[in-house]
Amino acid sequence: MSHTKSQRVTQRTIAELAGVSQATVSLVLNGKADSTSRIPEATRRRVLDAIAETTYVADPAARSLAGVGNDLVGIFTYEPAFPQETSDFYAPLLMGIETTAESLGVDLLMFTSAPIVDGRRQLFHEKNRLRLADGCLLLGQKMDTGELNRLVDSGYPFVAIGRRDDPAGRIPYVGVDYANATSTLAELALARGHTRFYSLHVPTDAESTRDRQSGLVRVLDEARVELTSATTDGSDLEAAWRAIRKAQPTVLIVEDATHAHRLVDIAVADGVDVPNDLSIVVLGERTRPSERGLDFTRLAAPRPQLGSNAITLLHQIMNGSSDAVEPLPHRQLLECVIIEGATLGAPRIGSNL
Amino acid sequence: MSHTKSQRVTQRTIAELAGVSQATVSLVLNGKADSTSRIPEATRRRVLDAIAETTYVADPAARSLAGVGNDLVGIFTYEPAFPQETSDFYAPLLMGIETTAESLGVDLLMFTSAPIVDGRRQLFHEKNRLRLADGCLLLGQKMDTGELNRLVDSGYPFVAIGRRDDPAGRIPYVGVDYANATSTLAELALARGHTRFYSLHVPTDAESTRDRQSGLVRVLDEARVELTSATTDGSDLEAAWRAIRKAQPTVLIVEDATHAHRLVDIAVADGVDVPNDLSIVVLGERTRPSERGLDFTRLAAPRPQLGSNAITLLHQIMNGSSDAVEPLPHRQLLECVIIEGATLGAPRIGSNL
DNA sequence: AAAGCACGGTAATACGCATTAGCAGTTGCC
DNA sequence: GGCAACTGCTAATGCGTATTACCGTGCTTT
To answer: Where does the HTH lacI-type domain lie (chains A, B) (predicted)?
Structure first.
């Protein structure tokens, strides 16, 4: 727009400077030394010198059109990534992604232009721009399987972060083994002697939520131990707390970390001591140190590694697995770390609950 | 690579489906209703229907090549943006950028592939990829003026975040008026009766550091009040503290927030009460609630707005100021908020310092 | 009836790059 | 000396889109 036509430095410009053809410039730049077209050192030098004199960089759009990659990895987040509330969730992922992107030599393209409907970005829309990138990482708690399948059909390389239900096994993802981790936590609680479990989870039917529930249920069923389940979106935790008191569990399993924090406040105000009267275990993300200095017993997803693995896998999918390296599995579940905090005690007889 | 040729849905595909030419499809999609080429509703419908049947999306690379911008805004951060230490600094900026990018309808390209030397990303290097984006935002505490001027010369649209020294006035930036804010803080301290100032700042000669110093010096000079200055990179705050004790100031002005936190710990261990024995004022970024629950009197840059203004300005520079809107100034300084915390008291005679 | 005209649409081209076929000049070989 | 093989390079083409120049067709006007 602002540039006059002549401003832009293209391969043709370089070619004229070096006294060769545009094709030669391209060949030099791409280091093609096929038997079909060799270029002697002298010519190569002239071209490279000409490039050095100018500020030439290949137009990525043109490269892309011409069918070669651009080393551009897209990042699609279903919610804005940087506001305080979501940043705790995305930042560790992005950190892993960024670090690995650096070593892979790729740039990151964030699709912030996607229109937002009902608080979620729309993957497919009029001016879908996914193709700007060579491949794409999909981040978000919940994704539409239909959309993902459509993406698979299009042949566009992508990797989802988080396990995805997909019987056909066509959706590549890197997820967290929440089921297993939750089972371990439940066994821990059982070992401490807990007998009455209460699970408070979020109302979405995202895979991550279901996995946690199934992990919990599996262990408790096996042990023939009682489990009460309830959901809350966090809007009325007072009510949730009243329901909990009524059920009189010995241990409370809370999916969402912020819910857990607020519940403890309510519980303490209600004269209940944690963990002496009631143990609490947290299954959630977004855990930052409690105001109260409470160190929850919880599970912690290895999110930087999640991001790192995802972009590594995507990179492999994009560039075709070089036969040198062992191909990565297209569906990965990472182990979740269990953090032994201070909120899982032994059940107390005659608890104040 | 993996795609067979026929897979890809292009305008030609649509054209065949609708029984028109590729050109017509393009015209329909871009709503060109020039007198030179009108298209009746009937045809338009057929084309749109055909598009609806397929999963067609315009190839952004092709559009870009064809001369329409691709609404890509680059973000160059001199350090990795997401690790914990830097994230506190970048996240608020990115939040403002993201939000505004959304409403401007542009995508964000993060240049993570730039090689790192001495812990800082290199703006210019072999495979400089800035041109991938239509324009670029530059984030970082310190930037090389030479590099920035080279960027100006290239005609590439960019906006720096943070004030930049540049007598020629060619570098567009959106910065924070640290000088003024620091002056205000100093006046506040003077008004409370402080007579001995001690400034502890970071060793860089970044504009932001200098601005704070100059704002401080201006007010104190005017008031003919004593000021001791020292620098620290935070590696030996014990030594810094010993120097402070020796100087016996009534108020301590600390540039870096994390230094301030750690200094308070040292001071308290040393039997000094804040703010009764010693007042502290913080000029720095990256302030998160203290472990100790200490609420520093400090200044807080409006970082989300910084980001927002920067991308708005860049967008205007990229697209040429539409004559409809008032053109934005290419060099902006935003007012800094002063937060009246609990660490600036009145000086105490016979302080324990 | 010839000329003008609006309409509806298409062919052709440019954008910058990668890639292939192939051309002219040189060298190698028997 | 004749032919093949090789060397060093270029012309031509395609990628998918936007845009311009232009061409039929049927209708109106004189």
So the answer is: 9-67
First and final C-alpha spacing in chain B:
72
Across the interface, whether the CB atoms of A101 and B91 are under 8 A apart is answered no
The last residue of one of the domains, among A257, A285, A301, is A301
Exposure of A109 in the CB half-sphere (CA atoms within 13 A): 26
- A126-177 pLDDT per residue, tens: 667 888 888 999 998 888 888 898 888 888 899 999 999 999 999 999 999 9
Write down the residue that tokens 């001369």 correspond to. Answer: B67
In this structure, are A120 and A23 located in the same domain?
no
B91 CA: distance to closest CA in chain A (Å) = 6
The amino acid at B195: T
State pLDDT tens for residues A313-345: 999 998 876 666 788 999 999 999 999 888 998
Q: Among partner residues B83, B94, B127, which is closest to A95 by beta-carbon distance? A: B83
Quick count: other Cβ atoms within 10 Å of Cβ A253? 26
Report the alpha-carbon distance of residue B272 to residue A22 in Å, rounded: 73
Query: Looking at the structure, do residues B222 and B291 belong to the same domain, yes or no?
Result: yes
- In terms of residue numbers, what domain contains B270? 178-300
Got the DSSP string for A22-65? HHHHHHHHTT---TTS---HHHHHHHHHHHHHTT----HHHHHH
